[in-house]
Amino acid sequence: MIDVTQIRKDFPYLANQVNGKKRIYLDSAATTQKPLQVLQTINDIYSNYNAPVNRSASSAGNIASSLYMQAHENAARFINAASYKEIIFTKNSTEAVNLVSYSLINSKEKTVGLVFGDEIILPVSEHHSDFLPWTGLAESAGITIKYTSITPAGEVIPEEIMNAITKKTKLVLCSHVSNVLGIINPVKEIASIAHDAGALFLVDATQTVPHMPVNVKDIGCDFLVFSGHKMLGPAGTGVLYGKESLLEKMSPFIRGGGMVKTAGKGSALWSDLPWKFEAGTPDMCSAVALTGAVDKSSGKNFYGAMDYLSKLGMKNVHSYEQYLCKYALERLCAINEITLYGDDSPGNRCGIISMNIIKNRETIDPHIIAEFLADDGIEVRAGGHCAYPLMDELGVTGTLRVSFYIYNTTDEIDVFIDSIKDIITNRLL
Asked: Which of 175, 253, 261, 365 fits a 20 to 30 Å CA distance from 277?
Protein backbone atom coordinates (compact mmCIF):
# COMPACT_ATOMS: atom_id res chain seq x y z
CA MET A 1 0.00 0.00 0.00
CA ILE A 2 1.29 3.48 -0.82
CA ASP A 3 1.82 6.15 1.84
CA VAL A 4 -0.91 8.60 0.86
CA THR A 5 -0.18 10.90 3.82
CA GLN A 6 3.35 11.48 2.54
CA ILE A 7 2.20 11.74 -1.07
CA ARG A 8 -0.30 14.50 -0.29
CA LYS A 9 2.53 16.71 0.99
CA ASP A 10 3.88 16.82 -2.58
CA PHE A 11 0.70 18.37 -4.04
CA PRO A 12 0.19 22.04 -3.12
CA TYR A 13 -3.16 22.19 -4.93
CA LEU A 14 -4.70 19.89 -2.33
CA ALA A 15 -3.78 22.21 0.55
CA ASN A 16 -6.08 24.97 -0.69
CA GLN A 17 -9.57 25.58 0.63
CA VAL A 18 -12.80 26.20 -1.28
CA ASN A 19 -15.59 28.23 0.38
CA GLY A 20 -13.75 27.80 3.66
CA LYS A 21 -13.80 24.02 3.30
CA LYS A 22 -11.08 21.50 2.60
CA ARG A 23 -10.60 21.01 -1.14
CA ILE A 24 -11.38 17.47 -2.29
CA TYR A 25 -10.26 16.72 -5.83
CA LEU A 26 -12.11 13.77 -7.40
CA ASP A 27 -11.57 14.53 -11.09
CA SER A 28 -8.22 12.96 -11.93
CA ALA A 29 -9.63 11.14 -14.97
CA ALA A 30 -9.94 14.61 -16.52
CA THR A 31 -6.55 15.87 -15.36
CA THR A 32 -4.23 15.18 -12.46
CA GLN A 33 -2.57 17.57 -10.06
CA LYS A 34 1.20 18.05 -10.28
CA PRO A 35 3.72 17.17 -7.55
CA LEU A 36 6.33 19.63 -6.37
CA GLN A 37 9.08 17.51 -7.94
CA VAL A 38 7.63 17.95 -11.43
CA LEU A 39 7.01 21.66 -10.85
CA GLN A 40 10.63 22.05 -9.75
CA THR A 41 11.86 20.36 -12.92
CA ILE A 42 9.88 22.80 -15.06
CA ASN A 43 11.31 25.73 -13.11
CA ASP A 44 14.89 24.39 -13.31
CA ILE A 45 14.80 23.79 -17.04
CA TYR A 46 13.32 27.14 -17.99
CA SER A 47 15.65 28.93 -15.55
CA ASN A 48 18.91 27.21 -16.47
CA TYR A 49 18.57 24.76 -19.39
CA ASN A 50 16.30 26.42 -21.94
CA ALA A 51 17.85 25.88 -25.39
CA PRO A 52 16.75 24.62 -28.83
CA VAL A 53 16.75 20.85 -29.38
CA ASN A 54 18.75 19.33 -32.26
CA ARG A 55 19.43 22.81 -33.63
CA SER A 56 22.42 24.19 -31.74
CA ALA A 57 26.05 23.19 -31.25
CA SER A 58 26.28 25.23 -28.05
CA SER A 59 26.79 23.54 -24.71
CA ALA A 60 23.24 24.36 -23.64
CA GLY A 61 21.88 23.14 -26.96
CA ASN A 62 23.72 19.84 -26.64
CA ILE A 63 22.39 19.32 -23.12
CA ALA A 64 18.84 20.13 -24.25
CA SER A 65 19.14 17.63 -27.10
CA SER A 66 20.44 14.98 -24.71
CA LEU A 67 17.59 15.56 -22.25
CA TYR A 68 15.02 15.32 -25.02
CA MET A 69 16.52 12.06 -26.31
CA GLN A 70 16.42 10.66 -22.79
CA ALA A 71 12.76 11.64 -22.56
CA HIS A 72 12.02 9.35 -25.50
CA GLU A 73 14.11 6.57 -23.99
CA ASN A 74 12.44 6.85 -20.59
CA ALA A 75 8.95 6.90 -22.08
CA ALA A 76 9.81 3.78 -24.08
CA ARG A 77 11.04 2.07 -20.92
CA PHE A 78 7.88 3.01 -18.98
CA ILE A 79 5.62 1.10 -21.39
CA ASN A 80 8.26 -1.47 -22.45
CA ALA A 81 8.58 -0.31 -26.05
CA ALA A 82 11.50 -1.79 -27.99
CA SER A 83 13.22 1.52 -28.74
CA TYR A 84 13.05 5.30 -28.38
CA LYS A 85 12.32 5.30 -32.12
CA GLU A 86 8.83 3.98 -31.30
CA ILE A 87 7.98 7.02 -29.13
CA ILE A 88 6.47 10.12 -30.75
CA PHE A 89 5.73 13.09 -28.49
CA THR A 90 2.43 14.84 -29.20
CA LYS A 91 0.26 17.40 -27.40
CA ASN A 92 -2.06 14.70 -26.01
CA SER A 93 -3.82 11.44 -26.87
CA THR A 94 -6.17 13.29 -29.20
CA GLU A 95 -3.34 14.54 -31.39
CA ALA A 96 -1.74 11.09 -31.29
CA VAL A 97 -4.89 9.42 -32.68
CA ASN A 98 -5.18 12.17 -35.28
CA LEU A 99 -1.58 11.51 -36.29
CA VAL A 100 -2.33 7.84 -36.90
CA SER A 101 -5.58 8.52 -38.77
CA TYR A 102 -4.08 11.18 -41.03
CA SER A 103 -0.96 9.16 -41.71
CA LEU A 104 -2.72 5.88 -42.51
CA ILE A 105 -5.34 7.48 -44.73
CA ASN A 106 -2.76 9.55 -46.60
CA SER A 107 -0.02 6.93 -46.78
CA LYS A 108 0.95 5.67 -50.22
CA GLU A 109 2.50 2.55 -48.72
CA LYS A 110 0.04 -0.25 -49.50
CA THR A 111 0.90 -2.35 -46.45
CA VAL A 112 -0.18 0.39 -44.02
CA GLY A 113 -2.38 2.74 -46.06
CA LEU A 114 -6.16 2.89 -45.81
CA VAL A 115 -7.99 3.09 -49.15
CA PHE A 116 -11.51 3.27 -50.52
CA GLY A 117 -13.66 0.39 -49.25
CA ASP A 118 -11.54 -0.36 -46.16
CA GLU A 119 -13.18 -0.71 -42.73
CA ILE A 120 -12.34 0.50 -39.21
CA ILE A 121 -13.93 -1.16 -36.16
CA LEU A 122 -14.33 0.41 -32.73
CA PRO A 123 -16.66 -0.10 -29.74
CA VAL A 124 -19.57 2.26 -29.05
CA SER A 125 -18.00 3.14 -25.70
CA GLU A 126 -15.08 5.06 -27.21
CA HIS A 127 -14.10 8.63 -26.36
CA HIS A 128 -14.75 11.23 -29.07
CA SER A 129 -10.99 11.47 -29.56
CA ASP A 130 -10.99 7.87 -30.77
CA PHE A 131 -13.66 8.13 -33.46
CA LEU A 132 -13.92 11.78 -34.52
CA PRO A 133 -10.40 11.85 -36.05
CA TRP A 134 -11.53 9.13 -38.44
CA THR A 135 -15.03 10.31 -39.39
CA GLY A 136 -14.26 13.27 -41.64
CA LEU A 137 -11.23 11.68 -43.27
CA ALA A 138 -12.99 8.34 -43.60
CA GLU A 139 -15.99 9.89 -45.34
CA SER A 140 -13.87 11.69 -47.91
CA ALA A 141 -11.69 8.60 -48.45
CA GLY A 142 -14.59 6.16 -48.73
CA ILE A 143 -13.73 4.25 -45.56
CA THR A 144 -16.44 2.65 -43.39
CA ILE A 145 -16.49 2.93 -39.60
CA LYS A 146 -18.26 0.07 -37.81
CA TYR A 147 -19.29 0.24 -34.13
CA THR A 148 -19.63 -2.78 -31.84
CA SER A 149 -21.79 -3.13 -28.73
CA ILE A 150 -20.76 -3.60 -25.08
CA THR A 151 -22.02 -5.75 -22.22
CA PRO A 152 -24.60 -4.35 -19.75
CA ALA A 153 -21.66 -3.85 -17.37
CA GLY A 154 -19.89 -1.76 -20.02
CA GLU A 155 -17.16 -4.12 -21.13
CA VAL A 156 -16.12 -4.37 -24.76
CA ILE A 157 -17.09 -7.78 -26.23
CA PRO A 158 -14.26 -9.44 -28.18
CA GLU A 159 -16.72 -11.73 -29.95
CA GLU A 160 -18.61 -8.70 -31.27
CA ILE A 161 -15.40 -7.35 -32.75
CA MET A 162 -14.60 -10.73 -34.26
CA ASN A 163 -18.05 -10.94 -35.85
CA ALA A 164 -17.74 -7.42 -37.26
CA ILE A 165 -14.41 -8.10 -38.96
CA THR A 166 -14.39 -8.77 -42.69
CA LYS A 167 -11.69 -9.04 -45.33
CA LYS A 168 -11.95 -5.26 -45.68
CA THR A 169 -11.11 -4.54 -42.02
CA LYS A 170 -7.77 -2.76 -41.77
CA LEU A 171 -7.85 -1.29 -38.26
CA VAL A 172 -9.41 -2.08 -34.87
CA LEU A 173 -9.37 0.57 -32.13
CA CYS A 174 -10.26 0.12 -28.46
CA SER A 175 -9.77 1.99 -25.18
CA HIS A 176 -7.93 0.05 -22.53
CA VAL A 177 -10.30 1.60 -19.98
CA SER A 178 -13.51 3.54 -20.57
CA ASN A 179 -13.20 7.11 -19.29
CA VAL A 180 -16.87 6.90 -18.23
CA LEU A 181 -17.20 3.42 -16.77
CA GLY A 182 -13.68 2.64 -15.61
CA ILE A 183 -13.96 -0.89 -16.99
CA ILE A 184 -10.69 -2.56 -18.01
CA ASN A 185 -11.15 -4.03 -21.48
CA PRO A 186 -9.45 -7.25 -22.72
CA VAL A 187 -7.12 -5.49 -25.15
CA LYS A 188 -4.65 -8.35 -25.37
CA GLU A 189 -7.41 -10.67 -26.62
CA ILE A 190 -8.65 -8.01 -29.03
CA ALA A 191 -5.11 -7.55 -30.38
CA SER A 192 -4.99 -11.26 -31.27
CA ILE A 193 -8.38 -11.05 -32.99
CA ALA A 194 -7.30 -8.04 -35.05
CA HIS A 195 -3.98 -9.56 -36.06
CA ASP A 196 -5.54 -12.92 -36.96
CA ALA A 197 -7.64 -10.98 -39.45
CA GLY A 198 -4.63 -9.07 -40.80
CA ALA A 199 -5.76 -5.77 -39.23
CA LEU A 200 -3.80 -3.24 -37.19
CA PHE A 201 -4.73 -2.56 -33.56
CA LEU A 202 -4.65 0.81 -31.77
CA VAL A 203 -5.10 1.08 -28.00
CA ASP A 204 -6.19 4.27 -26.26
CA ALA A 205 -4.39 3.84 -22.93
CA THR A 206 -5.13 7.33 -21.64
CA GLN A 207 -6.86 5.92 -18.56
CA THR A 208 -4.43 3.06 -17.89
CA VAL A 209 -0.83 4.20 -18.39
CA PRO A 210 -1.24 6.59 -15.41
CA HIS A 211 -2.93 3.98 -13.25
CA MET A 212 -1.55 0.48 -13.82
CA PRO A 213 1.36 -1.36 -15.44
CA VAL A 214 1.09 -1.20 -19.24
CA ASN A 215 3.34 -3.32 -21.46
CA VAL A 216 2.95 -2.76 -25.20
CA LYS A 217 4.82 -5.94 -26.03
CA ASP A 218 2.53 -8.01 -23.81
CA ILE A 219 -0.60 -6.39 -25.24
CA GLY A 220 0.69 -6.88 -28.76
CA CYS A 221 -0.75 -3.59 -30.05
CA ASP A 222 0.55 -1.77 -33.12
CA PHE A 223 -0.18 1.68 -31.70
CA LEU A 224 -0.89 3.01 -28.22
CA VAL A 225 -1.62 6.56 -27.04
CA PHE A 226 -1.70 8.38 -23.70
CA SER A 227 -1.65 11.91 -22.28
CA GLY A 228 0.87 13.38 -19.84
CA HIS A 229 -1.49 15.70 -18.00
CA LYS A 230 -3.47 12.69 -16.75
CA MET A 231 -0.38 11.18 -15.08
CA LEU A 232 1.07 14.05 -13.01
CA GLY A 233 2.81 15.61 -16.02
CA PRO A 234 2.36 18.96 -17.76
CA ALA A 235 -0.60 19.77 -19.97
CA GLY A 236 0.26 19.72 -23.66
CA THR A 237 2.18 16.45 -23.45
CA GLY A 238 1.19 13.15 -25.00
CA VAL A 239 2.74 10.03 -26.44
CA LEU A 240 2.13 7.90 -29.49
CA TYR A 241 3.74 4.48 -29.39
CA GLY A 242 4.00 2.80 -32.77
CA LYS A 243 5.87 -0.26 -33.95
CA GLU A 244 9.03 0.91 -35.69
CA SER A 245 8.31 -1.14 -38.80
CA LEU A 246 4.98 0.64 -39.23
CA LEU A 247 6.19 4.14 -38.42
CA GLU A 248 8.94 3.78 -41.01
CA LYS A 249 6.31 3.27 -43.72
CA MET A 250 3.85 5.96 -42.58
CA SER A 251 3.64 9.53 -43.85
CA PRO A 252 4.35 12.47 -41.52
CA PHE A 253 1.35 14.18 -39.94
CA ILE A 254 2.83 17.70 -39.65
CA ARG A 255 5.61 18.95 -41.89
CA GLY A 256 8.17 21.66 -41.25
CA GLY A 257 11.48 22.28 -39.54
CA GLY A 258 13.42 19.49 -37.90
CA MET A 259 11.75 16.53 -39.61
CA VAL A 260 13.76 16.33 -42.82
CA LYS A 261 17.30 15.34 -43.68
CA THR A 262 17.21 17.40 -46.86
CA ALA A 263 14.56 19.44 -48.65
CA GLY A 264 14.37 21.14 -52.01
CA LYS A 265 11.76 22.67 -54.26
CA GLY A 266 8.99 20.08 -54.26
CA SER A 267 10.99 17.28 -52.62
CA ALA A 268 12.09 16.18 -49.16
CA LEU A 269 13.84 13.30 -47.44
CA TRP A 270 12.34 12.60 -44.01
CA SER A 271 14.47 12.37 -40.90
CA ASP A 272 14.93 9.15 -38.97
CA LEU A 273 12.42 8.10 -36.31
CA PRO A 274 11.11 9.60 -34.15
CA TRP A 275 12.00 13.05 -35.51
CA LYS A 276 10.14 12.33 -38.76
CA PHE A 277 6.88 12.87 -36.85
CA GLU A 278 8.00 15.78 -34.64
CA ALA A 279 8.10 18.84 -36.86
CA GLY A 280 8.86 22.21 -35.33
CA THR A 281 10.72 23.11 -32.15
CA PRO A 282 9.77 20.50 -29.54
CA ASP A 283 8.69 21.21 -25.97
CA MET A 284 11.75 19.69 -24.32
CA CYS A 285 10.89 21.05 -20.89
CA SER A 286 7.46 19.42 -20.74
CA ALA A 287 8.75 16.15 -22.17
CA VAL A 288 11.40 15.94 -19.46
CA ALA A 289 8.91 16.93 -16.76
CA LEU A 290 6.78 14.01 -17.94
CA THR A 291 9.52 11.37 -18.21
CA GLY A 292 12.52 12.53 -16.22
CA ALA A 293 16.13 12.86 -17.44
CA VAL A 294 19.69 13.55 -16.25
CA ASP A 295 22.19 16.22 -17.29
CA LYS A 296 25.07 13.85 -17.99
CA SER A 297 27.66 16.63 -17.82
CA SER A 298 26.80 17.60 -14.23
CA GLY A 299 24.82 14.63 -12.96
CA LYS A 300 21.83 16.84 -12.16
CA ASN A 301 18.61 14.84 -12.05
CA PHE A 302 15.40 16.23 -13.50
CA TYR A 303 12.57 14.40 -11.76
CA GLY A 304 9.64 13.53 -14.00
CA ALA A 305 6.09 12.30 -13.50
CA MET A 306 7.11 8.83 -14.66
CA ASP A 307 9.88 8.83 -12.04
CA TYR A 308 7.34 9.68 -9.37
CA LEU A 309 4.98 6.88 -10.42
CA SER A 310 7.78 4.35 -10.92
CA LYS A 311 9.03 4.99 -7.40
CA LEU A 312 5.55 4.20 -6.07
CA GLY A 313 5.27 1.16 -8.34
CA MET A 314 2.48 0.94 -10.89
CA LYS A 315 1.12 -2.25 -9.33
CA ASN A 316 0.83 -0.38 -6.03
CA VAL A 317 -0.87 2.56 -7.75
CA HIS A 318 -3.43 0.23 -9.32
CA SER A 319 -3.99 -1.68 -6.09
CA TYR A 320 -4.59 1.52 -4.13
CA GLU A 321 -7.07 2.84 -6.68
CA GLN A 322 -8.99 -0.43 -6.56
CA TYR A 323 -9.06 -0.18 -2.76
CA LEU A 324 -10.58 3.32 -3.01
CA CYS A 325 -12.97 2.19 -5.72
CA LYS A 326 -14.18 -0.78 -3.66
CA TYR A 327 -14.73 1.44 -0.63
CA ALA A 328 -16.66 4.03 -2.63
CA LEU A 329 -18.79 1.46 -4.48
CA GLU A 330 -19.84 -0.21 -1.23
CA ARG A 331 -20.98 3.11 0.23
CA LEU A 332 -22.68 4.30 -2.96
CA CYS A 333 -24.59 1.03 -3.41
CA ALA A 334 -26.23 1.66 -0.03
CA ILE A 335 -27.88 4.87 -1.29
CA ASN A 336 -31.23 4.02 -2.91
CA GLU A 337 -31.40 7.15 -5.05
CA ILE A 338 -28.11 6.44 -6.82
CA THR A 339 -27.85 4.51 -10.09
CA LEU A 340 -24.36 3.28 -10.91
CA TYR A 341 -23.09 2.54 -14.42
CA GLY A 342 -20.66 -0.24 -15.17
CA ASP A 343 -19.61 -3.29 -13.21
CA ASP A 344 -20.22 -2.97 -9.45
CA SER A 345 -17.10 -5.04 -8.77
CA PRO A 346 -13.80 -3.14 -8.39
CA GLY A 347 -11.79 -6.13 -9.64
CA ASN A 348 -12.06 -5.11 -13.30
CA ARG A 349 -11.95 -1.36 -12.78
CA CYS A 350 -9.64 1.56 -12.52
CA GLY A 351 -10.62 4.33 -10.11
CA ILE A 352 -13.54 5.75 -12.15
CA ILE A 353 -17.20 5.65 -11.08
CA SER A 354 -20.12 7.17 -13.00
CA MET A 355 -23.58 7.58 -11.51
CA ASN A 356 -26.83 9.50 -11.52
CA ILE A 357 -29.23 10.48 -8.78
CA ILE A 358 -32.87 9.59 -9.31
CA LYS A 359 -35.35 11.23 -6.91
CA ASN A 360 -39.10 10.94 -7.20
CA ARG A 361 -38.58 8.97 -10.42
CA GLU A 362 -36.75 11.89 -12.00
CA THR A 363 -33.09 11.75 -13.06
CA ILE A 364 -31.46 14.86 -11.67
CA ASP A 365 -29.22 16.83 -14.02
CA PRO A 366 -25.69 15.79 -12.95
CA HIS A 367 -24.48 19.37 -13.46
CA ILE A 368 -26.76 20.46 -10.62
CA ILE A 369 -25.27 17.81 -8.34
CA ALA A 370 -21.75 18.86 -9.35
CA GLU A 371 -22.53 22.48 -8.46
CA PHE A 372 -23.82 21.47 -5.03
CA LEU A 373 -20.69 19.40 -4.48
CA ALA A 374 -18.52 22.32 -5.57
CA ASP A 375 -20.16 24.40 -2.83
CA ASP A 376 -18.79 21.81 -0.39
CA GLY A 377 -15.29 22.01 -1.88
CA ILE A 378 -15.64 18.75 -3.82
CA GLU A 379 -14.50 18.80 -7.46
CA VAL A 380 -16.04 16.19 -9.79
CA ARG A 381 -17.04 15.94 -13.47
CA ALA A 382 -20.57 16.09 -14.88
CA GLY A 383 -21.85 15.69 -18.45
CA GLY A 384 -21.33 13.42 -21.42
CA HIS A 385 -17.57 13.02 -20.80
CA CYS A 386 -16.82 13.28 -24.54
CA ALA A 387 -18.55 9.93 -25.06
CA TYR A 388 -22.00 10.76 -26.47
CA PRO A 389 -22.51 7.44 -28.30
CA LEU A 390 -21.96 5.68 -24.96
CA MET A 391 -24.45 8.03 -23.29
CA ASP A 392 -27.00 7.00 -25.94
CA GLU A 393 -26.19 3.35 -25.22
CA LEU A 394 -26.77 3.95 -21.49
CA GLY A 395 -29.99 5.85 -22.19
CA VAL A 396 -28.85 9.04 -20.46
CA THR A 397 -27.68 12.49 -21.49
CA GLY A 398 -24.86 12.56 -18.96
CA THR A 399 -23.55 11.26 -15.65
CA LEU A 400 -21.80 12.42 -12.52
CA ARG A 401 -18.26 11.02 -12.49
CA VAL A 402 -15.80 10.70 -9.64
CA SER A 403 -12.26 9.50 -10.27
CA PHE A 404 -9.56 8.67 -7.76
CA TYR A 405 -5.79 8.81 -7.76
CA ILE A 406 -2.78 8.31 -5.53
CA TYR A 407 -3.51 11.40 -3.42
CA ASN A 408 -7.12 10.58 -2.51
CA THR A 409 -8.25 9.01 0.78
CA THR A 410 -11.22 7.12 2.22
CA ASP A 411 -11.83 10.15 4.46
CA GLU A 412 -12.41 12.23 1.32
CA ILE A 413 -14.82 9.60 0.02
CA ASP A 414 -16.72 9.80 3.33
CA VAL A 415 -17.04 13.58 2.95
CA PHE A 416 -18.25 13.10 -0.63
CA ILE A 417 -20.84 10.51 0.46
CA ASP A 418 -22.08 12.74 3.28
CA SER A 419 -22.43 15.62 0.84
CA ILE A 420 -24.36 13.45 -1.64
CA LYS A 421 -26.73 12.31 1.10
CA ASP A 422 -27.31 15.89 2.21
CA ILE A 423 -27.93 17.00 -1.37
CA ILE A 424 -30.51 14.24 -1.87
CA THR A 425 -32.27 14.89 1.42
CA ASN A 426 -32.07 18.66 1.86
CA ARG A 427 -31.06 20.45 -1.33
CA LEU A 428 -33.09 18.82 -4.09
CA LEU A 429 -36.62 20.14 -4.27
From this structure: 175
